[in-house]
Design goal:
The structure is a single chain. The chain has 10 helices and 12 strands. With 254 residues, it is of the alpha/beta class. The protein has a domain of 69 residues: P-loop containing nucleotide triphosphate hydrolases (Rossmann fold). Strand 9, helix 7 and strand 10 form a beta-alpha-beta unit.
């Protein structure tokens, strides 16, 4: 996205993310998100749920300005994201998406994103928190082992934990998490869940949630359908209402 000539740097995120009557349409298509009003308070975990095609990924992609709203505003601490320099905005956000992007480079550079002069001690800290340190140490050259493009030689769980290590290293106050739906064996799932818990601690988290365990611990659940917010509440609020959330919940446990 284009940056305004007078775009500003902002202090570290501290208060809230607000979607202020936001609508969005992809170019040449009908409106996809419609009249979204939502506040995410600092320190909260907000789970976005809904059927496929509801607009979940599009919604979270408005925060780092991968797209701009067709109408309305996205505000971080009261400042329209379009008024913030892209460097300043994106330095405040870490993303872990379903498609883990790894490069044909060393483990070190995949975690550090090319930042130089990072000690093994610093890497150990994030590798331990992401439950990745053991398999990294078993590689031929440890952090200096070159992994193939997209991490094809790694298991799905290992790729996810490297992506979590990268987000931990960035140490941004806002975390956008699109939980992977790929099937992992029980042990890999346990390790990834532990790593995600470490990553989420102390951050403001917006998660496109597929796991019941994530949804249950969210401070707020936002149910999207056809680009609109249909329900908002906690798991306990929504589970007995007989609405979309209850239906999605029953499908998952059946």
């Amino acid at each position: 996205m284009a940056e305004k000539p007078n775009a500003i740097a902002v202090p570290p995120f501290s208060r809230s993310i607000v979607f202020d009557n936001v609508s969005f349409a992809y170019e040449g298509r009908e409106t996809f998100l419609k009249d979204i009003c939502l506040e995410v308070k600092a320190g909260d975990v907000v789970a976005i749920v809904g059927p496929s095609g509801a607009g979940k990924t599009t919604l979270v992609n408005l925060i780092p300005r991968f797209f701009d709203p067709s109408r309305g505003r996205v505000l971080i601490d009261g400042v329209d994201v379009r008024d913030i320099s892209l460097d300043s905005l994106r330095s405040q956000i870490a993303m872990v998406t379903q498609e883990t992007i790894l490069f044909n480079d060393t483990v070190r550079n995949n975690i550090c994103y090319g930042r130089r002069n990072v000690s093994d001690e610093d890497l150990d800290e994030v590798a331990q928190a992401s439950i990745a340190v053991d398999f990294i140490r078993q590689m031929p050259n440890g952090y200096d082992t070159v992994i193939a493009d997209r991490g094809e030689r790694l298991s799905g769980g290992q790729r996810q934990r490297l992506a979590i290590a990268r987000a931990l290293f960035k140490n941004a106050p806002i975390l956008i998490l699109d939980e992977a739906t790929s099937e992992l064996d029980a042990e890999s799932e346990r390790l990834v869940q532990k790593a995600l818990s470490n990553l989420m601690a102390g951050r403001t988290v917006i998660v496109i949630a597929h796991r019941l365990s994530t949804v249950r611990r969210a401070d707020k659940i936002v149910v999207l359908e056809e680009g609109m917010i249909r329900e908002v509440g906690t798991h306990q609020d929504l589970i007995g209402q007989g609405g979309i959330y209850q239906r999605l919940h029953e499908l998952q446990i059946s």
